[in-house]
Structures are given as C-alpha cells and as structure tokens.
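Data card: per-record layout.
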Amino acid sequence: MPLYVFARNPYDHQQHYAPLVAHSHRIRELVLEIPMERRAFGQTELSAILPATPNLVCLSVVSNSGWIIRPPINLQSCPPVFSEPPLHLTRLVLKSPAWFPGGFAYHQLTHLHMSGDMTCSVLTLLSLLGLCSSLEKLIIADLSLDHAWVDSTSTTISLLHLRLLTIGVTRRTFTARCILAHLLLPSTTTVRVIGAEAIILLSKMNPPSLAFAATVNRLIIGCTPEYLTIQAAGSSSSILIHWSRIERGRLFPWLDVHEWMKIRDSIARLVPCQNIQHVTISSVYWDPMLSLLPDSLSAISLCLVDLDSERIIVDHCASDRDKELVKKSLVEDMLRGIESRFLHLTELHLWSSNLSCSQCSPPALDSLEQYTFHHVHAHSGTTGPATTSTDSEQCSFKGPTLNPGMKTTFRFTDDVSWPALDLPNVRPTCHPYDW
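The structure for this 435-residue chain is written out next.
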C-alpha cells in the first residue's frame, strides 16, 4: 500500500522519520512544510534527515508567503533533498520556496505547480522551465517574483510536450505575467487563465506565439452577474479565460468603454478570431459582450442564448407588459449589433424564454440562410427525455430585412434542452488547479 507523508518542519522533528525507513519504498508523495524563518537556510540538512524514497512520484515544498531578507535563488546550486535520486519523481509543487530542490533530474518532471513568492529573476524562472523538457502540465498560480529581480529577457523556452498551461490570478501582486510571452507552446495545448484578477493579467501581458491556437475554430462567450468566460477550441488546442468578478454587466465598477476595448484587443491576441467558424454567446448583458468581438468575423454559425434578463430590468418596470417590451428591445439591439461583426453568417439560432422576442427581425445580412427561434419553456415532466417540437414558418417578422430565400423556424423547447455552453475538455472538471 502506498504512503503519503506530510512533514511539518522536518528540521525540528527528525526523530519522527526513523520509523519510515523500513517503509520508504512505499512513499509515493512527500510534502515538506518549511517554516518561513527556516526556509532560507539549513536546506542542505534535508538529505541527511529524510529517508530514501526510491519510488517517490510527487514532491511538494511548501512555505508561508512573505518576504524576508534572503539571497536570490541560484539555479546552479540546488540543495539535494534526497540521499538517493528518486527515479520515478514526475510531479513537483513549489509554494514560496527560497530554493529549488535538487538531487533529481528535472527533465523527468511531467507536472510542475508554482505559486507564492520567489526571490528570483524572470531569467532564472525561465531557466528552470527549460530544464523541464518533458513537462505535460504547468500551473502558475499567483506567482510573485521579487521586484528587485524582475528583469527583461529575450529568452524563449519551448515546451514541446505541454498539454495544459493554467495561470491563476486571484491577487494583484502577480508579477510573473511576462512568463507567458517567452513560452512556445505546441498545437495540442490547453491554456487556462482564471481568477478574480485575471483581467489585470490579460490586459497587461504580452501574449505567447499563437501557433498553439492555429486549430481553434469554435468560440463560446458566457456572462452572468458573477463571471465572464471565454472558451475557444479546435481539433487539438483550447483556450479558457475566466473572470469571476462582474457587477451589472461590467468588469469591476471602474471599467469604461475604452477599457473594454483594451480587453477585446487582448483577447484577440490570444484567440485567433479570424479562424472562428462557430460562435455561441450566452448573456444577460449584450452590449459589453458584443464589444468584446472584433469588428468583422468570418463565422458562419451563431447561437445566441438570452439568459434571464428579468433580474436586471425588474426594478425599472412597473408592469409585466413593460418588462416584455424592455426584454424585446434588448434582444433587438443585440440582433442589430451583430450585423457589423458577422458578415458571412449563414445560420442563426436565438434561444429565449421570452415569446415576444420571436417577433424580432433577424439581422439584415445577405448571407443569412437559416434563422431559428427557440422558445424555452419550463419542463413539466420529472422523468423521461426532453422533447422538442418543431413547426416551420411560424415566426412573424417585421421589416424589410428578411432574405426572400431564408428559412425561418419556430421551436418549442424544454428548459432542460438548452444548447451546450461548454466546449469539451476546456473547463477544469474539479478544482481549477487540479492536474
């Protein structure tokens, strides 16, 4: 049976490791919690304190955050943690380390998680990644470099085997944002940028080479009062950008329209919108969502999901009739807004629980061949599959915007049959930093 060992302050509890010697071959995961006052010295003692771990798979070196006076991390003098190299070590977790552990081959690592405060330069950190030539999954969460050692460099690191890159930003002290600009990622990579302060990172960083995103052809934008999510995927690569702080349609109260434009430009550098063919937008706030899109897209398919907009207009309407009119007006404005951005659109789907929205005229696009309105109503049954009934040509549109040959369809749809608002394998299945 494998052992998972948690060693708190190993320097002061050396006697506790003697019983582990007979079972050292069973140790698969080792967590070393180093007190902040000890993390900057005494590390050379660990190889004499800890038992041999020939079958170790995962090593975690964890310390408290906070700056103390200590020399910068030197990649050329990594103190050995083990008396014998663990030949099966493939996973390394570093949280606020004062040194990088040594005594094993970094090129055998497939998983690396870094977070917290580090007294090292960007070049040192890139050099560390350069040693990890077999990396498949890299997580950088709230990583802060000592400001005195943040530098600029032209070094580029190729991570040819990387399948997942996760950058988490939940605090504004993230100072390693430039790391992403120095990484060359393969075309099979999934990139996730998540956290309450992710917008700060994205709007200020230099993006990586877009070679990894060459196959991206699907885009999903989702917005609720709680978050904004951008998902993009193709045959091999995918991108997730997730912000968890939105208030009444705006990313933080202080963002104005010009800052929205900066965010749009930043997204355009990470998501190659010129290759997007299929777009889905689900939102209660249409104006800012449309402003995130470039002025012209080559997409041929668009799905618009009108989420419950009642929550943002209920306080401003005296009657149900007024609410219906306001909802319809919001959808009409949204349909007009896509005319300048989807010039090659051939298929448009609109999902809404508001029946009056079926009277909205579709965009005036010569290319549009199919327009379908999905009226979503409450599902009355408790068991059995969801049902959808279709009755063509029941939509009654007004205005001269319709193409004579365009097919219009009206559908009644149960609320359990909403379209897919997530792309496969883009979101984390459990914790955002899970491997």
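Known properties of this structure: The radius of gyration is 27 Å. Residues 380-393, 396-400 have pLDDT under 50 and may be disordered.

See the next section for split statistics.
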